[in-house]
Amino acid sequence: MRKPIYALGGAGLLLSVSMLAAQAQTVEPTTPPDPPAFEAQGTPNFVGITDMFEYKALPEYHEPEWVTSEYVDTGKLPPVGERLPKEPLVYKTANMPDGTGVYGDVMRHVIGGRPEGWNYIGGQSQGWGGIDIGLSECLTRTGPLFQVRAEELAPLPNLAKSWEWSEDGHELTMHLIEGAKWSDGEPFTADDVMFYWEDNVLDPNVAPLNGATPESFGPNTTLEKVDDYTIKWTFEAVEPKQYLYTMAYGTFCPGPSHLLKPQHPKYSDNTYEQYKNAFPPEYLGIPTMGAWVPVEYRPDDIVVMRRNPYYWKVDEAGNQLPYLDEMHYRLSTWADRDVQAVAGSGDFSNLEQAESYVEALRRSADEDAPARLAFGARTIGYTLDLNLSANGWGEPDERAQKVRELNRELDFRKAVSIGLDRQRLGESLVRGPFTAIYPGGLYAGTAYYDKDSTAYYAHDMAAANALLDGLGLEDTDGNGIRNFAGGGDDVEITLLANTDYGTETNLAEGIIAQMEPLGLRVIANFQQGTARDDMQQSGQFDWVMRRPGSEVVSVVQATETLAPTGPRTSHFHRAGTDGTVDLLPFEEELVDAVNGFINTSDNAERAELMKTYQKLFTENVYSIGLTQYPGALIINKRFANIPEGAPIFMFNWAEDNIIRERVYVPEDRQGNFELHPQTLPAEPGSSTGTM
Ligand code: GLA
Prior knowledge:
Helix content is 25%, strand content 16%. The chain is α+β, with helices and mostly antiparallel strands. Helix 13 packs antiparallel against helix 15, helix 14 packs antiparallel against helix 16 (502-515) and helix 18 packs antiparallel against helix 19.
């Protein structure tokens, strides 16, 4: 093992180290270097919300011809007009890039995750990669907002088709789509919404998949059913429009209460674990409000979905959506998703693992390449989160508790931050203009980012070592690893990372290597995605790698996760056994800035609050930003209606952004990929999957 710099030499060097220490305290941060120029390939055609769709009854409705002949004419299904709600959501032709579509074909996804089961609101993962996005419909919708004009930016209606605020601004009444049905024909009503809220969000024993907690909707918020199609929110704040974003994916997407409720411990003898696992992946035909329904599952192989005969969205000609009859999710690896999409054996990828950029670009440049590839802005990145809970969250042992106490020291976080060479970390993934230094907090290039409010401590090993010395972390036993102050054990820190992503483990290995000369032993705790997520959610980590979400890109989506605004809203600082969060003083200010942002719609004020946030975040090295880079959407050229300039990630992932229910394949380009042609999902729990 290489000897750490700080341990070299005798008294003379010790003197210079302490001089450095004195210097380090006065080292001032600078602003971060400008990211290398990188042009996004494609700009959205910006529109207003009402240009996209409306809710209205149409004089006639249509469906694939085989649905009518095989299912309606044989009495297995009511006619399409009776399956649709009173006023379906109607996509406007003028907003469809290629206009009205035709039925048929498949989108062949490849994913790296694995479904745990279908109980999304009970906390089960479906394996990501667009599965849950396609199954879940939420009160509002935000993915497609990348193409909405800035002045009109607001969440899109979805299951909630309209809403109004009370005069005093504390109450929000929402009108649900009327007469819509789950994919098994059962009515969707306010009871589904109330079951989600009361027995999942409010029940502390349930942790819905994407982290909805009561506080995600503001302190002491209440929700009540007014009638089957009306719900009423009451907020402490006045017109907190921000929560309309929290009502989108992934925090307010109700599940089928007619199936889930009887399994919930409140209404059964089940334990919470049994409730969560009541609908394993083998369970076919789980009722959805989404456009497709699972009809086949083969472990480590594939999930197949067929069109939802009750889907409640149509085009202007009255054609029931989706246009695509089938969806595949090949259960492979994320890296294989890139390879297959480029090669044409898969149809879709969010190119986000920078190691494969050069090869993917090279192969897509060919005129005959099966897929188009378009880069967007730098909205993908990684951060290193330090567990700041010294309050028992995740039940740390003695060593882990000591690490958390270190994590809470500013000088420690600074030392780790300046001990990292971000330039090298980025270049270890890919060379060229892709990666940029990420100092932490909001991503550069997003609307609320302010460079002058961003403190950047440049890479400086000597200063990093001096800071660690200053904390009394000395290598008392001469083994090259610093010991906890007072002659304790070696400082050993575990780093939790997700093995589903090569990029993540590559970066984690880089961190481990770069911490070694500082005398910090970082130990890889590399876990497969689901296990990693469970450990992170339950606080069982010292350090964890994370790909920040929309909160640092759009800022208006998932805003509550920017700080511990509630006991369970932050990614790395949550309540302990007593239900409270042991906030550091600057975190109180962070919380104020975030709450201030949530509670005002005044743009100038919001911009100022985010400057404050960014300054507090980066000066205090709240979490350790690593690298940020652009992603590219790869999609097979046979698909039509892919919106121009669709980012792989902004308010949501591209699987939502491109509005898959509107995507189609022109007749002359349709492939022969359907595994269950001309079939529809069977009743829930059926062993055959299709009718
Ligand atoms: C995973 C993938 C993303 C995206 C999301 C969708 O996180 O890495 O590219 O497909 O799933 O949920």
